[in-house]
Amino acid sequence: MADDSRPHEGSNPEDEFRDMLRDILSGKSSIDPSQLAGAAGLPSDPASVAALMSQLQNALRGSGDGRINWDIALRQAQERAAAGQVSLEAEQRTQLEQAFHIAALWLDDVISVAELTRQPQLMTRKEWATATLPLWSQLAEPVATSISDSLTRVLTEQAPEELQGMIANASQLMRNLGGTLFAMQLGQVVGQLASEVVSGGDVGIPLLDEQQAALIPQNVADFGQGLDIPTDQVQIYLAVRELAHARLFRHSRWLRLHLITSITEFARGIRIDTERLEELASGFDPSNPEELRLAMVNGSLIPPKTDAQLAALARLETMLALVEGWVDVVTAQATSRLPKSDSIAETVKRRRASGGPAESAFATLVGLELRPRRLRDAAAMWLAVTDAVGNEARDGLWGHPDLLPTSADLDDPKNLVARLTSSTEGSGQDLDEVDQALADLLRDDGTERPHEE
Known about the structure:
mainly alpha; 2 domains; 66% helix; disordered N terminus
């Protein structure tokens, strides 16, 4: 029986669709709001469900412009991050500040990249989530837009004929609702990451502003639990890794923008499997939203990558591996004084290989997974370069993207080492432009040259 409270003939189709959704949100429909929360990948506790309903009702009331309201993601991330947060004790602060001081001195002995101009920070989980959410939003937006466009198109096509016009006219409203759900889910992901990462550079890309290093004391303490390793050694080791990562991006001014641009361009190339989406839409059971939720988070809506995407992905993975591999090598050099440095390094590798924060975040938000094999290859290559030409020449390769090792160099560093050693020995053979740049670099008197804009 029709609901007499709804508009009848002659009513605005968008208003009619709005009323239908309002029935769902007010509990008049058969859909349980907690099930809707589950479909969105959000907690089903009363407070989370109430927050979800409030945000969706706001989306219904607002006209919007189709863009995702990332303030919703920020609030979700902050709330999730703060849920298990503990206060930093004065003794712990003193220990970590001392760890950063030692780390800076030890790094100066093994790298030739410039020091940071900002003091390292000790961040709470909530502060990390707040500081990094803008970049997460930027990286996730292309995928969010693609999912929203595809879902709107599929629902319009799948709707019964009598509802086609209503849904077509309400597409903007549907985008507002879809964007709200996506933003809330992103906030949950970032909030969860805030309880896992130990530092600003833990996910491999520079989430914080340029020249900013940071540790999350609560997570550093969690990292060291059960390792049977003195706390100060864990703190120094992680401080060295974080400073090395931040100083690399400070040294190579082009690197941060290059990485972020590469990731967003890759994400823009992602398309949604509309056939799979149609199957989910036609067979969706509101009482059992798990299939839809899993499809949204496990990547099954993203079809196999095209050849162009695979090539772009390979270039991006190589760059990320070069960064992480360099950090691994210089950290090992700088922490050689720590009796348990090898054990801590092994813990970092196991954490990475088992699907740590970086892998899960990239896979969920932009369909990008880091391959530990590439990271090991990159570390082996940087170690070979260090042994062949020393720290200064190794670090000089970050001066310009054209000087960086390639994927082929990761597979077999011998040719790269041969070129570098030939340049340092002043070989008389004719050099191409890249080799000539290498030769000039390796003959440099050590003074820092301005970066090209």
